[in-house]
Amino acid sequence: MSDTQMRAVLVREFTGPRDIRVTDWPTPRPAAGEVLVDVHYAGVSYPDLLHTRGLHQDRPELPFIPGWEVSGVVAADGAGLRAGERVAAVTLLGGFAERVTAPAATVFRLPDGLALDVAAALPLNYLTAVFGLVHRGSLLRGETVLVHGASGGVGSAACQVAAGLGCRVIAATSTREKADAALALGATDAVLVDGFRDAVKSLTGGRGVDVVFDPVGGERFTDSLRCLATDGRLLVVGFTGGEIPTVKVNRLLLTNTGVLGVNISSVLRRTPEIAQRLWADLVPLIESGAIAPVLGDVRPLDGAADALEALEQRRVVGKQLLRIR
User: Fold this and answer.
1) 136 neighbors 110 (Cβ within 8 angstroms)
2) In this structure, what are the phi and psi dihedrals at residue 141, rounded to the nearest 5 degrees?
3) Long-range CB contacts (< 8 A, 24+ apart) of 300-305?
4) CA-closest candidate to residue 33, choices 83, 110, 101
5) Which of 23, 55, 173, 259 is found 20 to 30 A from 7 (Cα to Cα)?
6) pTM reported for the whole predicted model
7) Domain at 209, CATH number
8) Are 104 and 224 members of one domain?
């Protein structure tokens, strides 16, 4: 790698992961307040897949380098960080490359002993989980949380964060195998999606849950609302199920419940300084061992298309990574 050129994954058209290419690309130069990072690992996330198809609400100008999160080493002194420091970063774009720049506010020093591969799996899912549960959902110790998609990336992160904060976690999954995985991640109970409303009511003695964390959406949304206890909160995190549901607001009035959006990317763009507060919430959970992402396949940069296709086809177990160096 030269100082002016690097290897990077490039999206030239919105036709999906199969058409992305690894190519030589100019090395980015940090602006004021930015940090240049030598990327060791990049996390592969669902928003990356949406970006290759132009389906994400934040639609980049073509061509662009995808990649929301990375771990690596600071390449040069700047913005309060020293060359050689081990970091993770939220990049939103640009992470599938040998080098990337990120605002200093979204670059995080790593606790001692945290491996770089594990660090790359933390930023997007775990910051989303703590932002949703604590900052949007006002989660309190001892409350009960229902997590949909509990064996997936952000769902498993929500299970671990909620359990680490002293809450009861009910995991909702599509198969018994995924339920077992969620229990291993710290969920207190697990239910299958088919019939989850009745199962949750039974587990809570008819009371319901305080918070629903839902990255799936679709047809389960209405029953999720019916699972809420009085004063409960439903967190809308995404729509991996495809369908964007609607809500009849009279139910919210009758039960004093709320539906809250959780969009970490818009928050980080608007107020990036919140990222350090969120990371500070995570560090004690990392150091205690309460949260630890399950790692899946690790591929080279040339394997980015395969990784995104596996995500699209729901063949992924654990957090996929690209190993850059």
Assistant:
1) no
2) -55, 135
3) 301/7, 301/8, 301/9, 301/22, 301/96, 301/97, 301/98, 302/22, 304/9, 304/17, 304/20, 304/22, 304/44, 304/66, 304/96, 305/17, 305/18, 305/20
4) 101
5) 55
6) 0.91
7) 3.40.50.720
8) no
Segments forming the whole domain that contains residue 187: 125-265
Instruction: For residues 202 and 210, give the distance between their C-alpha atoms in angstroms, rounded to a whole number.
Output: 15
pLDDT tens-digit map of 219-252 = 889 999 999 999 999 999 988 776 788 888 888 9
Record the tokens describing residue 259, joined without a space. Answer: 């539906």
The reply to whether 93 and 211 lie within a common domain is: no
What is the rounded CA–CA span in Å between residue 85 and residue 165?
A: 29
Q: In terms of domains, do 42 and 151 share one?
A: no
Specify the DSSP class assigned to residue 291: -
Domain count, the chain: 2
* pLDDT tens digits along 17-45: 999 999 999 999 999 999 999 999 999 99
Give the list of residues 6+ apart from residue 253 with CB closer than 8 angstroms, or none. none
| Helix ranges, the chain (H) | 46-53, 116-120, 123-130, 153-164, 176-184, 196-203, 221-226, 249-255, 264-270, 274-288, 304-312
In a domain, 272, yes or no: no
Is 105 in the same domain as 235?
no
